Amino acid sequence: MLSNYHSAHSSIFNSQNPTALHAWIYYGAPAQNAPDTYKKHKIDVLRPQYFNLLDDGSLQRIDEDPYDLYTTQNAFSEKNISELKMYSKEQLVTISGHVTGMRNAFAKRATNYTGIVDILVDFVNEHQLTGIDIDFESYNLWTKTDYTNYKHFISVLGSKLHKSSKKLAVCGPMWTSSHSPHQWKYIDFVNLPVDYITPMVYDYQWDYGAGQPTCPLAWLKRWILMMKKLFKNERLVIGLPSYGYTASLGQYNIKNLSLEQIKHLNGYHGGIRDNSSAEIIKVVGNTVYVSNDRESMNVKRKLVESLGATQVSVWHLGGNDWF
User: Fold this and answer.
1) Which residues form the GH18 domain (predicted)?
2) What are phi and psi for residue 23, nearest 5 degrees?
3) Which of 24, 97, 268, 313 could form a disulfide with 136 if both were Cys (CB 3.0 to 4.6 A apart)?
4) What does DSSP assign to residue 18?
C-alpha cells in the first residue's frame, strides 16, 4: 500500500543523485563541531534542533549564547540560519519533546496547542526556512488518547505549513518485536499531511542490552522493506545512527556517546568489527563500547540504496564520522 498523500512541494530527490542526505544537528556538547561536517560534505537537508517542548507544554526556543557555546553552539541565531542555508538545500527546524510536555500541550488545545502551531509556522515563514521536524518521543508511555491528540496536532500543523508552502517531517519509533508495542502505527500517517516520514532505525541496544549493536543490518533491512510498502521514496527518510554508546556488558545503564568521545575513552581502537552491523564493539573488563564509524555508516547506506530507498537521515552531526 503506497501513500495516497502527495506533497505539493518540490522534492530534493534527483534521479541523477540517488540518495538524498539529511542530518540532525543537536546544540551544544558533544556536537559543537557539526559545521565541520556540513561544510566539508554535501548534505541536502539539515535538521537543527531550535526548540524543545517543555514538560509544562510550552515551547522553549534554544538560542546560541556566545558566552556559553559549550551548551548552546549550533542553536538558533541569525548567523547560524544563514550558514545552514549556504550549505544545504533544505532546513527543517527540529522540535524535541516527550510525553509529559505533549500531554500538557494537548490538554490546553484552545490556547497553548494552537499557539504552538502558530509559533512554529510563523518562525519558518519569518526566517524563510523549509519547514518543521517533529520529534516527540517516550513512545512506550503514550496512551490511546495521547496518540489521537498527536495525530490531530500533526494534521493541523501540516495543513497550516502547507498553506505557506512549507514542509513537515515526523520522526517515528522502531521496535524489535513482530508487532508494535506502542500506540503508533505507521499506516496511520499514510494520508496525513507529512512530507517526510522518518523511522529512526537505531537504539536496538535498548531492547537487548549492552553489547548489542545500535542497528543490525537484518533489522534495518526488515524495516526498510516494511516502510517501502507504505510510503513512496519522496516521503520516506530512513533514520541511521552515527553515534555509539558505552555500558556494563549485558546491562541497561547505556550512555550514548559520539565517536570522538568513545575514542577519548579508548573504546574504539582495538575493537572488533561486528558482522551483523558493521559496527565496532570493544569489551574492556565488564565495560562494552559500541561505535559507528565511516565504514559502518557506508555499509548501512549501501543496504538502504540496494533496497531502493532514496533518503537517509543521520543522528547526529558533530563528534561523529560521515559517509
Assistant:
1) 21-323
2) -155, 140
3) 97
4) -
Q: Which CATH number fits domain 20-242+293-315: 3.30.1450.10, 2.40.50.100, 3.20.20.80, 3.40.50.970?
A: 3.20.20.80
Domain boundaries, the chain: 20-242+293-315
pLDDT at 18: 72
Query: What sign for the dihedral angle of Cα 257, 262, 263, 269?
Result: negative
Sole residue written with cell 510550552: 58
Tell me how far apart the alpha carbons of residues 99 and 212 are, in angstroms, rounded to a whole number.
27
Which pTM does this prediction carry? 0.95
Residue 56 CA: distances (Å) to CA of 25, 60, 156: 24, 11, 21
112-169 pLDDT, tens digit each: 678 999 999 999 999 999 999 999 999 999 999 999 999 999 999 999 999 999 999 9
Going by their DSSP bridges, the two strands 45-53 and 59-61 should be labelled as antiparallel
- Cis before 316? omega within 30: yes
Distances in Å between the Cα of 247 and the Cα atoms of 191, 217, 252 are 40, 22, 7
Task: List the grid coordinates of 98.
Answer: 516527550
DSSP 140: G
**CB-CB contact of 320 with 259 (8 Å):** yes
Helices (H) and strands (E) in the chain, counts: 10, 14
Q: Which residue has the cell 566539508?
A: 40
Q: How far is CA 249 from CA 202, 252, 271, 282, 288, in A?
A: 19, 8, 15, 10, 6
